[in-house]
User: Which sequence fits this backbone?
């Protein structure tokens, strides 16, 4: 008994130290970037190192906006992520409804095939997608960068899982009242699925916002690229302008930070949902 | 139709209604199916097709059968990339899983201030929301061999600091470390969800029976979390295996080719050297390896019930 008590005591001490040490370790990299963004070059390249900026400066931000279309990149990323989110929500909801509630031949087989494609690496498709984008005249357009991100199989999987759990009685009652299948989707299934719809919406928004490889290939015009690819352009151009690139990285992570502070609980619950373990 | 059997009419009505139902079901799936077919399914076939050609836009492409695959396996650079991808996955996967599990466990058993644990959860999770470029910039700056804070710590402790990302030995493990920082928070949330699902009574019973902490951990918690752990194992392995952004942004495969992973090899061949056929073949190999990894996960670890 006492051995267990000491074990519990050790564990409690360990969790306290662990929480402290790991929090610091995990927070430090981003903090360092944020602090560097406001340091003068003198402070950035000082030895020994300076943790806080001696004289905070906005120089790097001013230079960033003078040299690069950072605002455009932000808007491009925003547009891409919104476009993908809205369309993906619409097509995935329709498909998931059919897979969950309508019965037709080959339904489950098709669903399994789509589900299996969840694990296909996008990297494999980039060369064919590149040729297709050129052929369809979608190369170097934001639509070309967005379209392949829309049919995310996990969306169908997640929504179907949720739709399956909506009680049948509601649907039967509506059907007796003469509701069409679309009416059932619109009036019963969707209003009862707002948590999962918003969870998936946040998930795919984040996915589209952060997607790197395909936009890197599809978007070539420095004015048309997304934020993630734009940062790559900055890095490629100035190896050593650490102030500017840290300012850019800091600004680029602000939207994530802002959204995260607003929707933390929802995002985390959404992840738990979309992990496929809860559902 | 007086001479037809009476149930003919009803049978006919049944079949048209059945047909309508079939069509209705398909109509809902159609928009998704079109996008999925165009952007997910079709590129796979197209990629395989491309891998059978010696691509040449000027002289015209020539069908070469599996020659690209043969060339691939004779290319030491490809074999190097393959090894690096496996090495990278071998470093990232256990680290991500262990760190994420530890975080989840610490937060789950936390009995102190709730604000503190919520804050810690936010701190652990936040890097996951960053785009890969930000992650790469962050870590390049942290690991700067001249002015980075980590170098400074080494100097302060009077330990000779390696040149980090310019050091062929350290570059890949350090990219793996950055990846662990980036992705562990996501797995932590998955594990937290799984921990939350364990019925509280089980612990009470185990504690009443006089179970030790490590017995609690290895006899109760880990077995009950097995599905979540295995699921994460497969998914993290696949994502580690296909890593591109971090490497591309942090080292571009260098120093030398010490960090050139499969996806980078594919990218460079396709979009820098324009060896489309060979790059497509590398893509097919990547696909096959992913499928093998997935099947191993599904068959050996019995994940089928988790997915479907």
Assistant:
């Amino acid at each position: 008994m006492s051995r267990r008590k000491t074990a519990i005591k050790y564990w409690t001490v360990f969790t306290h130290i662990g929480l402290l040490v790991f929090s610091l370790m995990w927070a430090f990299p981003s903090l360092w970037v944020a602090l560097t963004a406001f340091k003068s070059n003198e402070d950035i390249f000082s030895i020994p190192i300076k943790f806080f900026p001696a004289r905070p400066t906005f120089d790097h931000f001013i230079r960033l906006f003078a040299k690069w279309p950072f605002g455009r990149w932000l808007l491009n990323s925003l547009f891409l992520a919104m476009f993908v989110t809205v369309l993906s929500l619409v097509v995935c909801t329709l498909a998931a409804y059919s897979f969950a509630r309508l019965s037709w031949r080959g339904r489950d087989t098709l669903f399994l095939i789509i589900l299996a494609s969840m694990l296909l690496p996008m990297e494999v498709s980039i060369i064919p997608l590149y040729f297709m984008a050129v052929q369809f005249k979608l190369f170097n357009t934001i639509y070309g960068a967005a379209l392949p991100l829309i049919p995310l199989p996990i969306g169908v999987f997640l929504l179907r899982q949720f739709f399956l759990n909506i009680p049948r009685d509601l649907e039967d009652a509506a059907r007796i009242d003469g509701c069409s299948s679309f009416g059932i989707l619109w009036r019963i299934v969707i209003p009862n699925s707002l948590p999962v719809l918003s969870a998936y919406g946040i998930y795919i928004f984040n996915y589209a916002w952060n997607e790197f490889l395909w936009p890197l290939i599809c978007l070539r015009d420095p004015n048309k690229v997304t934020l993630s690819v734009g940062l790559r352009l900055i890095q490629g151009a100035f190896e050593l302008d650490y102030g500017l690139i840290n300012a850019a990285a800091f600004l680029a992570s602000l939207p994530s930070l802002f959204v995260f502070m607003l929707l933390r609980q929802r995002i985390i619950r959404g992840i738990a949902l979309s992990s496929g373990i809860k559902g | 139709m007086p001479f037809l059997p009476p149930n003919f009419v009803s049978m006919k009505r049944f079949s048209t209604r059945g047909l309508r139902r079939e069509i209705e079901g398909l109509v809902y799936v159609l928009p998704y199916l079109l996008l999925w077919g165009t952007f997910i399914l079709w590129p796979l076939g197209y990629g395989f097709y491309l891998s059978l050609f010696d691509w040449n836009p000027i002289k015209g492409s020539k069908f070469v059968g599996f020659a690209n695959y043969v060339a691939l396996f004779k290319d030491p650079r490809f074999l190097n990339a393959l090894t690096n991808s496996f090495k990278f996955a071998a470093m990232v996967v256990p680290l991500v899983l262990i760190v994420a599990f530890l975080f989840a466990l610490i937060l789950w058993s936390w009995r102190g201030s709730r604000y503190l644990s919520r804050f810690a959860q936010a701190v652990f999770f936040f890097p996951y929301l960053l785009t890969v470029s930000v992650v790469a910039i962050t870590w390049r700056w942290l690991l700067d061999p001249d002015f980075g804070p980590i170098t400074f710590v080494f100097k302060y402790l009077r330990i000779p600091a390696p040149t980090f990302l310019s050091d062929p030995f350290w570059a890949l493990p350090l990219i793996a470390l950055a990846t662990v920082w980036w992705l562990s928070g996501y797995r932590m949330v998955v594990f937290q969800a799984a921990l939350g699902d364990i019925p509280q009574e089980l612990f009470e019973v185990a504690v009443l029976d006089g179970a030790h902490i490590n017995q609690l951990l290895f006899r109760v918690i880990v077995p009950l979390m097995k599905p979540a752990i295995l699921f994460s194992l497969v998914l993290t392995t696949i994502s580690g295996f296909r890593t591109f952004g971090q490497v591309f942004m942090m080292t571009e495969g260098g120093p030398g080719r010490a960090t050139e992973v499969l996806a980078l090899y594919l990218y460079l061949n396709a979009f820098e050297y324009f060896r489309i056929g060979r790059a497509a073949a590398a893509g097919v190999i990547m696909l096959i390896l992913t499928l093998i990894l997935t099947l191993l996960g599904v068959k050996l670890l019995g994940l089928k019930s988790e997915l479907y």
Notes: Chain A has a mean pLDDT of 86.
